């Protein structure tokens, strides 16, 4: 049959045959023809070889493209890894500076304040041994100024737990707030204790929780020991008796009575209808333990201070004046 098919017809079918598009019967006829016809075989090879080379070129191109994509992927991975590492390093550096260099505002310090010739001198001691002083400065708070103290973690280059600074009265405006204390424009200093006591004024002695808050702010139990309470509110003068539990030694009895008299004056000033503050305690002497008692009335307190004891509750400044007169810090 191959001899009946002209070469021109076979040659027309070669492109389809090379691409595998001919039928099975046509394919067999073309193959038989190619076995006997050199010219057609040469034409077929001319078509087939470039196709193989094209496949190889395509494969090579694909490999190059894949290699390129792999390189791009690896570069992107490297960039992402570098970005993550860089971000971690920046955050770590920021945390390091925050913890050890710049620090953060802190109220964990005890200030010692003095005013002399229009200059406010402030000395402070940090209460946290795991902190070091970094810096301090003033910030505005309304018409007043506030001292802000920055502390950081101790380091080999900074282990300082004390600081000192100073400002003129002109710099502080309407007042300088220092960790609960306040320096007034006239140079007077109101302690945090005086400010707290003023806020805890109690109009009625029968309000025992309110009485207790005043006593706690004064630090009576810390100074003189624990006590129980007894109130006398049936008739005037209304009274409050502090019954101390811990015995007082003979050598400390005078100091105990002196401190209790001072505390009683403050209690009488800040409890509006209190007329008498009394106390009982046990005194240990050489000849045994003896029951002791003492009391301060509003009239006795007024005589001691030179004016009505109740007048000292009018303002924070007056409460501070009372504490200064009594030597209570």
From TrEMBL:
All copies of the Putative zinc-finger domain together span: 7-41
What keywords sit in the KW lines?
Answer: Membrane, Transmembrane, Transmembrane helix
Q: Which InterPro entries match?
A: DUF4825 (IPR032250), Znf_put (IPR027383)
DNA repair: is it a keyword of this entry?
no
Residues forming the DUF4825 domain are 197-286
The transmembrane segments are: 80-101
Protein name, UniProt field: DUF4825 domain-containing protein
């Amino acid at each position: 049959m191959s001899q009946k098919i002209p070469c021109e017809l076979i040659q027309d079918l070669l492109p389809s045959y090379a691409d595998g598009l001919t039928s099975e019967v046509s394919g067999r006829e073309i193959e038989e023809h190619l076995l006997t016809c050199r010219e057609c075989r040469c034409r077929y090879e001319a078509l087939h070889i470039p196709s193989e080379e094209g496949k190889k070129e395509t494969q090579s191109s694909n490999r190059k493209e894949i290699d390129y994509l792999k390189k791009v992927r690896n570069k992107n991975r490297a960039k992402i890894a570098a970005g993550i590492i860089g971000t971690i390093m920046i955050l770590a550096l920021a945390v390091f500076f925050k913890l050890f260099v710049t620090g953060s505002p802190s109220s964990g310090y005890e200030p010692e304040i003095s005013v002399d010739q229009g200059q406010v001198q402030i000395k402070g001691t940090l209460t946290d041994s795991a902190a070091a002083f970094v810096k301090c400065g003033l910030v505005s708070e309304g018409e007043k100024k506030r001292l802000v103290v920055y502390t950081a973690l101790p380091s080999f280059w900074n282990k300082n737990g004390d600081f000192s600074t100073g400002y003129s009265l002109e710099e502080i405006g309407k007042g300088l707030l220092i960790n609960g204390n306040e320096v007034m424009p006239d140079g007077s200093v109101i302690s945090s204790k005086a400010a707290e006591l003023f806020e805890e004024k109690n109009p009625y002695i029968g309000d025992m929780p309110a009485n207790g808050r005043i006593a706690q702010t004064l630090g009576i139990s810390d100074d003189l020991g624990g006590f129980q309470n007894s109130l006398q509110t049936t008739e005037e003068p209304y009274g409050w008796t502090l019954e101390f539990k811990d015995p007082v030694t003979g050598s400390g009895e005078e100091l105990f009575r002196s401190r209790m008299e001072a505390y009683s004056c403050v209690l009488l000033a800040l409890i509006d209808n209190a007329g008498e503050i009394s106390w009982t305690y046990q005194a240990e002497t050489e000849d045994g333990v003896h029951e002791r008692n003492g009391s301060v009335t509003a009239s006795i307190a007024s005589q001691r201070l030179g004016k009505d004891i109740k007048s000292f509750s009018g303002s924070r400044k007056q409460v501070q004046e009372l504490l200064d007169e009594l030597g209570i810090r």
